């Protein structure tokens, strides 16, 4: 008998103990760890007597495992994994990618290092657990569910062609390491508040051919949902996705026992009995030991009525016989359908690959299992029947086709009589601009791609937000180039770019039919001296190229620069060459010069042809004769990687080890020193860079990031008719060069907003060298909204001296947008040249530190602009 399976799940072979609540051989009823332990204690039955699946609440999250970079703590994860293994039930790893509980050290890294850290994290999980039954590959990526999502998105390659490339990359990385595992996308508010966005995200991953096996509904929001609303939402999901579904984190947070029981009775059978539901995980079962107050099923060691009902329900025939998309809780064959493009024009020809994987579980059941045929349908039309890998076909889009989404369905038949399905879609555009190489000529590599010669095709097919003739690049823009690689091997590239400012980033990707490759690192574009001053960035592809036709995608992660061309050359190393670079000095300030000296020599029987030098991949020059010295004058602060490449007469190369040049910023007022008395506009902090003239807790530009071209991450927002500092966090600070025209006592008027219900605040300080002296603490409650600005007034605790000095605003504790601070002199102090005897004790007097003193103070004081001696 044939069984129609949606072709996804990969739970390991599981033997279910009859003592557990779920007696259904095809579905699990699982739970999480309790306070980092498996057995909850306190009179609650042992874990294995209740549940037959476990998810670590926190123990396997990246922040828990690698809180200290390079040091891995697997103890909690191992405890749950081994417990499940010993008691013969299944385990889910939670979670590889999450924009919340990632290690704190990750945010301090640049994108390339963050990406490398993700690769290392995936590798570490693979090394530790060669086989995982199920994995939450990505958790909570819809919209702004988690504040770290923008950083994670940047780290994994950005939105790309689909808008969700970073998630596709995460699933490809997981599949590369865990092809036998159930790869799940998991999110909350997926049933109620963010249903449509959730469907769009998962549908895009599926349609793009990502190896996603199932979708997970956390189900935290169901404490007051009606049964009809739940059924409607689940049906909407399944009609759109046609994939297996997991209930991953169900809890009913109700204090009243009978109401909790009633809600469980209403929602759990609807989910459990759905044929596409593969299992249910409850998120905690001990009252007081879960992330919410009232979701536990045991209280004081006694089961609540909901638990009593749950036991009764799981013993019913309906619960025992509920169908699952994975008989035996096993994924046998993975099927993923990948069209070359998600968008296509009428009359175009669309390559489509059906990617398949027979799992270890399937081979354990039938050692000679094999795929007999793969049938691909577009709509109801059978497009192709394929019997040999690769299961690749082409679909000719009729010129008469109607515009809109078209459904694909792959049906895979194996030699044991089973069939497996996977759905997908592509979008037929209303136009007829066919995709083809520019000028119908394919560029050959080794060779050069001219930036303006990207493929013909419609927007969203061959390019997006990207123009010809070297226009300025835009964030998220991309263009594809069809190329013919003539020889297998490694390649280097030289990209010719121009930019008036630093901050641009691009990478080169290839959207293969069986995966997504990043061919380069994220390449940082420096300031080159102007939009017409083109310079060369050198790099090496991250993987070898195979001979034949390729489509390269130049992806603009952060725009604002100009592309001219990219040249690709064969890379071959001569390991016998010797090359080393040194710098003098190794620490300089912006605008100063360091001299790079390179020593290089060839091995016996070879001849050295040239030496080239690079700073952060920016080409500095090439010399053919010693001494090999290069002067470098950096225009922006930061850490520069200095390298040199020696090339022999046969074109073979050797790169030096990397050296680090530290370039300190040069402090300058934003426009000119701010006159005091006067107004300090918060957004006009000094130039100089992170750590010198400001400190921000991350490198993201949130809010009105375009206000300052020199900004390096400080968050500015539109507000109060202009620009203000926003998205503040405790400990962040900005500094301002001020020119105090009148020494004396000062008052302040701060214009601020606070859209939270918590107290907001910042301090005003005076900075002299390494000494920071607090002058005022500005505290305030909520102002009624982030766009509602109010004023707070006070007096500085110390007089200001005349002359140029540095004022600092430090966020403390946060909840604070700062528009401006006005400083007024309330008691001038004139220039002091003489000391005279005190004739009378008056109220307003100051010691030599500028602090107000009373009438009982004795010694030299300042009164009415004169130094006087009180005896």
Structure keywords:
eight-stranded parallel barrel; Jelly Rolls; mainly beta; globular; Immunoglobulin-like; seven-stranded mixed β-sheet; 871 residues; 11 helices
Folded structure, characterized:
The protein is mainly β and 871 residues long. It has 6 domains: 318 residues, Alpha-Beta Barrel (TIM Barrel); 92 residues, Immunoglobulin-like; 133 residues, Sandwich (Jelly Rolls); 87 residues, Immunoglobulin-like, CATH 2.60.40; 155 residues, Galactose-binding domain-like (Jelly Rolls), CATH 2.60.120.260; 36 residues, no CATH class. Helices cover 14% and strands 40% of the residues. It contains 11 helices and 56 strands. The chain has an 8-stranded parallel beta barrel with strand order 2-3-4-5-6-7-8-9. Strands 20, 22, 23, 25, 26, 27 and 29 form a 7-stranded mixed β-sheet that branches. Strands 1, 13, 15, 16, 18 and 19 form a 6-stranded mixed β-sheet that branches. A hairpin with a 2-residue loop joins strand 25 and strand 26. Helix 6 packs parallel to helix 7 and helix 8 runs parallel beside helix 9. The longest helix is centred in the N-terminal third of the chain and has 18 residues. It is globular and about 105 Å long. It starts with a strand and ends with a strand. The N terminus is likely disordered.
């Amino acid at each position: 008998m044939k069984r129609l399976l949606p072709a996804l799940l990969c739970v390991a072979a599981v033997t279910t103990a009859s003592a557990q609540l779920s007696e259904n051989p095809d579905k699990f009823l699982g739970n999480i760890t309790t306070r980092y332990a498996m057995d909850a204690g306190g009179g609650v039955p042992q874990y294995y007597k209740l549940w037959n699946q476990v998810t670590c609440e926190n123990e396997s999250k990246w922040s828990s495992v690698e809180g200290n970079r390079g040091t891995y703590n697997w103890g909690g994860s191992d405890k749950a994994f081994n417990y499940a293994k010993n008691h013969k039930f299944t385990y889910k790893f939670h979670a590889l990618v999450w924009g919340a509980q990632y290690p704190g050290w990750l945010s301090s890294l640049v994108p390339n290092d963050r990406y490398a850290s993700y690769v290392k994290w995936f590798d570490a999980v693979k090394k530790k657990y060669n086989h995982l039954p199920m994995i939450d590959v990505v958790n909570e990526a819809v919209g702004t569910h988690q504040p770290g999502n923008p950083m994670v998105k940047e780290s994994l390659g950005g939105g790309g062609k689909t808008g969700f490339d970073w998630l596709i990359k995460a699933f490809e990385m997981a599949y590369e390491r865990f092809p036998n595992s159930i790869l799940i996308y998991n999110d909350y508010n997926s049933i109620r508040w963010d249903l449509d966005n959730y469907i769009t995200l998962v549908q895009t991953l599926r349609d793009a051919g990502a190896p996603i096996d199932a979708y997970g509904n956390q189900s935290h929001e169901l404490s007051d949902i009606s049964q009809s609303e739940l059924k409607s939402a689940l049906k909407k999901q399944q009609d759109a996705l046609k994939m297996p579904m997991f209930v991953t984190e169900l809890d009913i947070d109700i204090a009243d026992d009978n109401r909790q029981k009633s809600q469980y009775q209403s929602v759990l059978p609807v989910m459990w009995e759905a044929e596409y539901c593969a299992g249910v995980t409850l998120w905690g079962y001990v009252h007081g030991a879960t992330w919410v107050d009232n979701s536990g099923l045991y209280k004081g060691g006694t089961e609540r009525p909901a638990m009593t009902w749950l036991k009764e329900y799981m013993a019913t025939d309906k619960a025992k016989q509920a169908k699952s998309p994975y008989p035996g809780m096993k994924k046998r064959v993975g099927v993923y359908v990948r069209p070359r493009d998600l968008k296509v024009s009428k009359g175009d020809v669309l390559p489509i690959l059906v990617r398949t994987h027979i799992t270890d579980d399937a081979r354990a059941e039938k050692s000679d299992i094999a795929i007999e045929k793969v049938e691909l349908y577009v709509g109801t039309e059978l497009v192709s029947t394929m019997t040999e890998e690769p299961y690749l076909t082409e679909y000719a889009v009729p010129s008469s086709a109607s515009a809109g989404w078209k459904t694909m369905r792959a049906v895979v038949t194996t030699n044991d009589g089973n069939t497996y399905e996977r759905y997908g879609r592509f979008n037929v555009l209303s136009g007829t601009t066919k995709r083809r190489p520019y000028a119908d000529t394919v560029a050959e590599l080794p060779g050069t791609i001219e930036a303006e010669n990207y493929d013909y095709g419609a927007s969203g097919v061959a390019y997006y937000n990207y123009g010809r003739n070297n226009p300025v690049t835009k964030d998220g823009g991309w263009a594809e180039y069809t190329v013919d690689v003539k020889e297998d091997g490694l390649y280097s590239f030289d990209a010719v770019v121009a930019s008036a400012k630093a901050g641009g980033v691009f990478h080169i990707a290839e959207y293969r039919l069986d995966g997504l490759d990043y061919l380069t690192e994220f390449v940082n574009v420096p300031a080159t001296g102007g939009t017409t001053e083109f310079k060369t960035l050198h790099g090496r592809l991250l993987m070898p190229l195979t001979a034949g036709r390729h489509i390269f995608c130049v992806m603009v992660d952060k725009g604002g620069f100009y592309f001219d061309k990219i040249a690709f050359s064969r890379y071959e190393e001569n390991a016998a060459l010797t090359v080393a670079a040194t710098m003098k000095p190794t620490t300089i300030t912006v605008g100063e010069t360091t001299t790079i000296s390179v020593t290089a020599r060839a091995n016996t029987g070879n001849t050295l042809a040239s030496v080239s030098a690079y700073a952060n991949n920016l080409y500095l020059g090439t010399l053919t004769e010693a001494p090999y010295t290069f002067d470098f004058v950096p225009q922006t602060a930061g850490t520069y990687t200095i390298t040199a490449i020696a090339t022999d007469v046969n074109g073979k190369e050797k790169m030096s080890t990397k050296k680090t040049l530290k370039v300190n910023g040069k402090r300058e007022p934003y426009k000119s020193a701010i006159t005091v008395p006067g107004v300090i506009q918060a957004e006009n902090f000094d130039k100089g860079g992170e750590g010198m003239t400001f400190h921000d807790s991350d490198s993201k530009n949130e809010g009105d990031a375009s206000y300052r071209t020199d900004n390096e991450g400080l968050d500015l927002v539109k507000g109060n008719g202009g620009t203000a500092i926003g998205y503040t966090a405790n400990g962040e600070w900005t500094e301002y060069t001020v020119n105090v025209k009148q020494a004396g006592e000062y008052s302040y008027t701060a214009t601020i907003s606070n859209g939270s219900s918590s107290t907001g605040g910042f301090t005003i300080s005076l900075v002299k060298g390494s000494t920071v002296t607090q002058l005022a603490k500005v505290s305030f409650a909520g102002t009624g909204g982030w766009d509602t600005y109010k004023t707070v007034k006070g007096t500085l605790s110390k007089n200001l001296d005349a002359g140029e000095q540095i004022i600092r605003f430090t966020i403390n504790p946060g909840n604070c947008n700062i528009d401006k601070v006005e400083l007024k002199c309330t008691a001038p102090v004139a220039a002091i040249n003489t000391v005279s005897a005190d004739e009378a004790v008056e109220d307003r007097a100051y010691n030599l530190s500028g602090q107000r003193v009373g009438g009982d103070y004795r010694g030299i004081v300042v009164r009415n602009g004169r130094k006087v001696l009180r005896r």
